[in-house]
Amino acid sequence: MEPIRFSDNALFKGWGSPMRSESTIDGLEVIQGAVPEGLEGTLYRNGADWQYPSGRDDDIFIDGEGMFHMFRFEDGQVSYRSRWVHTERYEMQARARRALFGRYRNRYTNAPEAANANMGSANTTAMFHAGHLYALKEDDHPYEIDPDTLATIGRSDMNGQISARTFTAHPKLDPITNELLAFAYQARGDGTKDIVYYLFDKDGKLANEVWFEMPYAACVHDFAVTDEWIVFPFFPLITDMDVVKKGGNYFQWNPDQDTHIALVPRNGDASGIRWFKGPASSAGHMMNAVREGSKVHLDLCLYEGNCFPFFTTPQGEVTPPVPPFLTRMTLDLASNDGAIAKEPLLKVSCEMPRTDDRYQGRPYRYGYMIVYRSPDGSSSTGRLDMETGKLDVWSPGPGDTVQECQFVPRRPDALEGDGWLLVPVSRVSEGRSDLVVLDALDIEAGPVATVKLPVRVRSTFHGTWVSAETLASGQYPYELSSGSV
Ligand code: V55
Ligand code: FE
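^ thats the input. predicted complex w/ fe (iii) ion below
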């Protein structure tokens, strides 16, 4: 067999060094404070780890096999479990005892036996809808996961309802209506311009499906929703199949192409789509979208340039890294100029934006994010009051970093912002993690509980909270209360 040795890529050093192991820890130590009463349920997180060294020097952090994590809060205790997602590619590689998949999303660089395999690593997020839990990656169908054991149940087309070849890793679960809003891009295969918007009802039945074409074969990592319009941003990170077939990057940064935004009617069809455009820019993540009369506001972590410098230009140029800033893009349906207006919302750079999920697509007051303001490489959890512009910050300490937070309402009908923030903290110097519980009303007061992990939760991208009640019933019991705290 081939020796197991990872390359000198900085990805595999320090905090990023591959874990390649699964954990089961019942009753984690609570080293500070106490788990709040009423916090009963499971935080599911998904990330990437490295099953085998690729033997290449071009690995990127968004690749790697899905490692699915759960933190179960039950009667004041928290238990942790992590499991590989047993995708088709994970299973093939486990049998071969080596990497068979090459460059990110590029099947032309796979080992011959994997040339026609499904490419999905299921490494990006967790989704719970209509009683089912899934691990998602945007280039393949969902994989269903057992919510208690994290065993992989299998690849799912949701009862034959996903005719696209792919499915987003940024679905929007409306916890008020229990609808699932989702999409698939490059939906008829690698390099295709096809995109489809999917709306599923509370029981998981397909309720709307709108196919249309993107201006180019974009990377559509995230989207946003409102009560009437679904917002699809297209940034010029574009797939060129001639390049892919030669073993090149799956996406290339095209600064001479425009940013386009399509507004698709939430309950209508493709004839109602409206288009907007502006200069090249990019983003991974949307915080929210809201409709205000004839205007749709899209709040996102915007890069005035290329958000992924490892994707070069068609000329092979590496573009300089640019910081993401929370920005409001406004699209006016009453105007015919199709322009995108831009307004900065925060001077500090930030990523992984979240809200109280009950307010996705609805007028909202609070945003939560990872803020980058420390020269020492540490990061903090922020809460932005969109009404006053005030940013509250909780920092884990020098050198330590936070991962994306999860807002949990204190009660199903709590006011907006009244709840907890669950924050995975990377104790970089100690090579292990904590899970911190903040009171979302006062994050600067510091954690109400710090739950210690003896292991490293090395990288997670996104996740979701499933209360004990939701797990039992399959439905979210949340209600909208008017106003915020
Ligand atoms: C992104 C993340 C991905 C991916 C493509 O943040 C884009 C953007 C975690 O995986 O495959
Ligand atoms: Fe993402």
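The CA atoms of residues 90 and 440 lie 38 Å apart.
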